[in-house]
Design brief:
With 473 residues, the protein is an alpha+beta fold. The chain has two domains: 1-38 and 125-151 and 326-357, no CATH class; 85-120 and 161-323 and 380-473, Outer membrane efflux proteins (OEP). 63% of the residues lie in helices and 8% in strands. Strands 1-2-4-5 form a four-stranded antiparallel beta sheet, with helices on one face. A two-stranded antiparallel ribbon has the order 3-6. Helix 6 (153-223) packs antiparallel against helix 7, helix 6 (153-223) packs antiparallel against helix 9 (301-322) and helix 10 runs antiparallel to helix 11 (429-463). The longest helix is centred in the middle third of the chain and has 71 residues, at 153-223. The radius of gyration is 38 Å and the shape is elongated. This is TolC family protein. Pfam families: OEP.
Amino acid sequence: MFRKMNAFQQAGIVLFKTPWSRKGLTRVTIILLSVCVFVGGCATYKPQPLPVTADLVTPPRLTANIDRFACASLKPYPFDAQNGLDMTEIAILAALNNPDLMALRQKAGVARAQLFAARLLPDPQVTVRLDYPTVKRADLFTAYEYGLNYDLNYFVTRRVSIEEAAAAAAKVDLEILWQEWQVIQKARTLFVHAKFEEDMLNVLKQIQRLYANRYARSSKALREGNLTLDVTGTDLTAKIDSDTQVNDMEQVLNKTRHELNALVGISPDAKIRLVHPAAAPCILDERELKQAVRDMVERRPDLLALRAGYESQEAKVHKAVLNQFPALNVGIKMSSDTSDVHTTGHETVLTLPFFNRNRGKIAVEKATRQQLRQEYQARIAQAYGQADLIWTRQRLLIKQLHQLQRYLPTLEKMVEKARRAYADQNIAPITYINMENTLANKRLKAIHLMQGLWETAIALDALLARHGITVTH
């Protein structure tokens, strides 16, 4: 008869076939609880203090594992900081070294942990109950109840829970990728700012030298009595204005350089030699723009992230609908009363969906799904409008630049002749100064237009999720 019983019943008879003392029951209870704790393979806790110093690097070098960011659709790009950094190398350095991106990538670990948790089976529940008689009599025994319960409702929603967590993890990965795109765009933009601000500073310094020489001559002539005060005062004012312009541009360039260093994760005092872009960006024609806008929906990481978030929300709606059905919890138990009558049996707990039926949760999840749908639609519409705005600005910049470049060589030749005439004192100083100033301003305008052309190309490249900027000479 003993052999025909199951293991649970055999254990119960062995443990409880004789009256138990309070001390014996307490010992068994402690043993059972200890088993429940240790069989689970508990994780251990290790504190991780926050850092007290910045993790910036002094020389421009890669500190991230490039293999983690490998992309089959992109060709390898040689990275050599010894020869200076071009726009692509700055973008690579920013994507791998940016401190904010390093912190943001940790979110992916959280999302994957949530996906891992969604795949885990729920733990069973063990119940232990002991009742001690308050009256000591020979015919009274310590009552007990031991049970093992399991929640079966998990298996109803397991598939949609995993789908929800998987879509949420994909959303986080795509959001990180979009932030990487934004950092790359900003790094390229700062690169363009730094290089063209250097060009502007060089032109402004030429004007500064011109007015400094002019003021030196006029002040000498004033001391010799060969020039009036009003002319010298005008020259001094022009010199001070040119000094102010140079100082302002130096401040702007210093700010740009520090922003670029911070973005690529190197120390503020590190000096990076930037290689000037050798060509102008290639501009899309109208047909290419329309095709790129159509393809954008399948390429842009933020739109794909919104789509993944919508899929995750769809799974939440499905899960909420499934949770309206009765929740089932089953278990087995063994018990004994104070008269030493032993029993075994099973237990079923069923939630009856009479009043709530999870209708509130379903309504919330459906409303959230509709909100995400509208956000996705609005983001697409916004991208369409921004693409047309940037592309139109590009066309205007090209038109203005071509107009300026058409007459700039002629102006340069005229100024060169005026420079020789001024040296021979065959032209009025004010006329020569005005011509030099006009040439410098037009060169500044050309630099500004070319900078704007690069900025719009970079912005459109990020907006349309294109792989890179092509160049044209």
